[in-house]
Design a protein that fits this description.
Elements: H1 25-35, H2 39-57, H3 64-80, H4 91-113, H5 116-123, H6 136-147, H7 152-163, H8 168-175, H9 179-199
Helix pairs in contact: 1-2, 2-3, 2-4, 3-4, 7-9, 8-9
Length: 205
Amino acid sequence: MLYDSPRLSWRTSESVSNLAETVSEIDQVDIVASLNGDGEAYARVVRHYQDQVAAQMWRFTRDPAVLEELVQDVFVEAYLSLRGFRGRAPFLHWLRRVATRVGYRYWKSQVRKRDREEVLRETSLNLATAPEGLAPFEAAEALYGLLARLPPPDRLVLTLFYFAECDTNEIASRTGWNRTLVKVRLHRARKKLKALLNEAGIRRE
């Protein structure tokens, strides 16, 4: 199990019975119970959503150990922010925004730790095989390596757009950036990725 529920030390006297109709009845019950100190209720929330969160965090790391840590971080941060959930959208939508913040923060921390030469060495691609000869998994890993060479904002906007299939409105919602900034970053990130693809010998018109 990815998550062990903490002992909830705080209490709230406010009921969240006015959650929007977009929130499922099961989630409403467990959220209210969690806010009132029921650790098992929050553990149920975790069990319900951990697979979706893990799938999302897989976009941020290929290391199973790091993946597990990130998933835990998402649910810890979600728990600490739970009183801020207003129920204007399904709980999973809100949880995905939390997950995006956690993943983006992880990328930024990795960039700070990583030496530039190490980045180039670790993400260098073996393209002796023609790109069209790569298996889908190999092509995906090659692209993941190239994305790792981009600054975190560029990497995030491309990952959300191409892998998570988010439109610019959804990207703005998940990241907190305004839509104009999303469009500008997406445009610039595409140009940088194209340059990396050309450098790696993958020509795209």
